[in-house]
Write a structure and sequence with these properties.
Blueprint: H1 4-9, H2 11-18, H3 24-37, E1 44-47, H4 61-64, H5 75-82, H6 90-102, H7 113-121, E2 125-126, H8 139-148, E3 153-157, H9 164-172, E4 177-181, H10 187-194, H11 200-217, E5 222-228, H12 234-247, E6 255-257, H13 284-287, E7 289-291, E8 296-298, E9 311-312, H14 318-322, H15 325-336, H16 344-347, H17 354-362
Parallel strand pairs: 1-7, 2-3, 3-4, 4-5, 5-6
Antiparallel strand pairs: 7-8, 8-9
Helix pairs in contact: 9-11, 15-17
Length: 363
């Protein structure tokens, strides 16, 4: 869930920034403009309920270098976070989606990577981070707590970690969206990507069973098979097409996702990011935050090893952290480009930063 109003209200400014049509005074005023548009109440993009994981995915920093202790988020902390969330009502969402079609020239009904971001991520609290949600022993209780507060929920899983029984219970508790990570179409290839515990045939069988269970019980959970584009060669494109064709006649939302934020793994250096992020700059400092399993607050979903921590819920409230001097300084770094040496945003993230556009405007 992110601040859809910031996305809308900052769009005219964003267009000027991207087109490099700001004058010198505009560049000087950019911090004040963004601060005026930013909601002073934090929007929570995702909560990492656990960082336990039994997979060894080649593209995941957890596999490569993560050293955080495996834990589950504290129950009381999780509930306190939920109490701070005000879900969008249908009127808010309809207004946003109508605006997308009219001003942004994009239909949120499009079944695609961007369609998923605008139609699902905009309204759901994400319950995953650097762990497998189905390994969270309190997962069902957490979904139930969200449902009781009318908070839509979504998480992504590797089907190998999922049992049909637990997935059915999650759907019964009101899980809004359940996404499945499927990055190949045979067992040998998926094991190369996700590790020896991955199992392609078992994964497909489970998803097909859940489709029937959903139908029989009239569950409302949206089922989402998703493939990450690991390469852009002819064989990769053929696999992406075969993947979409496999699911096209089934009642699911299947799409191929860009391999953005690629960390240290690179299979195809020429592969392009096709998400909406590729045409703009990182907005996370102003739109939303992430709560890690330890209660630490990070600016986005890509902080796997506590590289950028802007506060801790054990010491401060979400509002205090979101409006803190430390967070303001972080936002200013994105505007000026004055990051400390070794800062992840500048040196280890493939998203374009705001300062890069502003520097071009000065030329």
């Amino acid at each position: 869930m992110y601040n859809i109003n910031f996305f809308k209200n900052s769009y005219s400014l964003k267009k000027k920034i991207i087109s490099k049509s700001l004058n010198e005074q505009d560049v000087k005023d950019i911090e004040a403009e963004l601060e005026k548009l930013r909601d002073k109440k934090p929007h929570i993009f995702n909560v990492e309920t656990t960082n336990y994981c039994n997979m060894t995915c080649v593209m995941c920093p957890r596999t490569i270098y993560m050293k955080r202790k495996n834990i589950w988020i504290d129950d009381e902390m999780f509930e306190s976070v939920l109490d701070k969330i005000k879900p969008y009502d249908q009127k808010d969402l309809d207004s946003f989606w109508n605006w997308l079609e009219k001003e942004y020239s994009f239909s949120p009904n499009e079944v695609s990577e961007n369609g998923f971001y605008f139609s699902v991520v905009s309204r759901c609290l994400i319950l995953h981070g650097y762990g497998e949600p189905f390994l969270d022993k309190y997962l069902l209780k957490r979904i139930k707590a969200c449902t009781a507060r009318s908070i839509p929920t979504y998480f992504s899983c590797t089907p190998a970690t999922m049992t049909i029984e637990k997935a059915e219970k999650a759907m019964a508790e009101g899980l809004t969206v359940l996404k499945f990570s499927l990055d190949a179409m045979n067992d040998d290839e998926i094991k190369k990507i996700r590790g020896r515990k991955a199992n392609y045939n078992d994964s497909i069988s489970k998803i097909l069973q859940l489709i029937e269970i959903k139908k029989q019980n009239n569950f409302k959970t949206l089922l989402v098979p998703c493939m990450i584009a690991m390469g852009n060669q002819k064989k990769d494109k053929e696999m992406h097409e075969n993947f979409l064709n496999f699911w096209k006649d089934k009642p699911v939302y299947a799409y191929v996702k860009s391999q953005d934020n690629r960390w240290l793994f690179e299979q195809d250096q020429d592969i392009k990011n096709k998400s909406h992020y590729a045409k703009q700059y990182c907005e996370y400092p102003w739109t939303s935050l992430t709560v890690m399993a330890e209660g630490k607050v990070a600016p986005c979903t890509q902080i796997s090893n506590n590289e950028i921590i802007l506060g801790n819920l054990k010491d401060s409230t979400l509002e205090e952290i979101w409006n803190s001097k430390q967070y303001d300084e972080f936002r200013k770094m994105h505007i000026t480009g004055n990051f400390p040496k070794g800062h992840k945003c500048k040196e280890n993230c493939d998203q374009v930063k705001l300062y890069e556009y502003l520097e071009k405007s000065k030329v």
